[in-house]
């Protein structure tokens, strides 16, 4: 015997499991926001890792130039020897060389980037003065006249100290 409740009660059928379109769109929006924040941070992190090659290369070639000066009392070619910066030395994505003419008592070394670091140039002279330039590079990176910029927006006098 059928009661009134069984006649007007909606039929219980199988329920479909899944996501609604709204739930899916909210998930896509959250992922897009996270990606917009994470990708620039990751890119800056990768660039910072590559800039270490420049500072290490400049420090190594500067030490070699000072040893050369100790032996020859000049930074110029002497006694059949050529200065360490006479030919470009590769360090990671950077190439270290002497961009200007050497004198007997002065030199300037340059680390010139390539590939993803092509916008970066780092310099050091015989007195240890450091400076860097960024031309057309990633946003937030600037040139420094008294130090190397190894972290976005910060000029660091000692590599890794900022």
Can you tell me about this structure?
- The protein has a single domain, classed as Fructose-1,6-Bisphosphatase, Chain A, domain 1 (2-Layer Sandwich).
- The chain contains 2 helices and 7 strands; from the N terminus they run ααβββββββ.
- The strands form 2 sheets. Strands 1-2-3-4-5 form a 5-stranded antiparallel beta sheet, covered by helices on one side. Strands 6-7 form a two-stranded antiparallel sheet.
- The termini are far apart.
Keywords:
19% strand, 162 residues, two-stranded antiparallel ribbon, alpha+beta, 5-stranded antiparallel sheet, Fructose-1,6-Bisphosphatase, Chain A, domain 1, rod-shaped
* Largest beta-sheet details: 5 strands, antiparallel
| Radius of gyration over C-alpha positions, nearest whole angstrom | 30 Å
Count of discrete alpha- or pi-helical segments spanning 4 or more residues:
2
* CA(first)-CA(last) distance: 84 Å
In CATH, what is the class? Alpha Beta
Assign a percent range to the helix content. Answer: 25-40%
**Secondary-structure element order, as H and E?**
HHEEEEEEE
CATH topology: Fructose-1,6-Bisphosphatase, Chain A, domain 1
How many domain units?
Answer: 1
Sheet-strand content, in percent, reads: 15-25%
Q: What's the overall average pLDDT, rounded? A: 86
Q: What structural class do you assign from the helix and strand content?
A: alpha+beta
Specify the overall morphology.
rod-shaped
CATH architecture classification: 2-Layer Sandwich
Question: How many runs of DSSP E, i.e. beta strands?
Answer: 7
Q: Could you name the ranges where pLDDT drops below 50 across 5 or more consecutive residues? A: none
> Going across the major beta sheet, what is the strand order?
1-2-3-4-5
């Amino acid at each position: 015997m059928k009661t009134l409740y069984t006649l007007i009660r909606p039929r219980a059928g199988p329920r479909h499991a899944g996501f609604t379109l709204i739930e899916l769109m909210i998930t896509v929006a959250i992922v897009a926001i996270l990606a917009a924040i994470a990708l620039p941070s990751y890119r800056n992190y990768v660039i910072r890792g590559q800039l270490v090659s420049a500072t290490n290369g400049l420090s190594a070639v500067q030490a070699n130039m000072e040893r050369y000066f100790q032996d020859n009392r000049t930074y110029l070619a002497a006694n059949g020897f050529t200065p360490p910066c006479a030919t470009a030395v590769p360090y990671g994505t950077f190439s270290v060389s002497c961009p200007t003419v050497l004198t007997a008592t002065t030199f300037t070394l340059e680390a010139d980037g390539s590939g993803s670091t092509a916008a970066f140039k780092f310099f050091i002279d015989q007195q240890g003065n450091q400076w860097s330039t960024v031309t057309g590079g990633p946003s937030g990176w600037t040139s420094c006249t008294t130090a190397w910029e190894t972290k976005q927006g910060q000029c660091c006098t000692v590599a890794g100290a900022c």
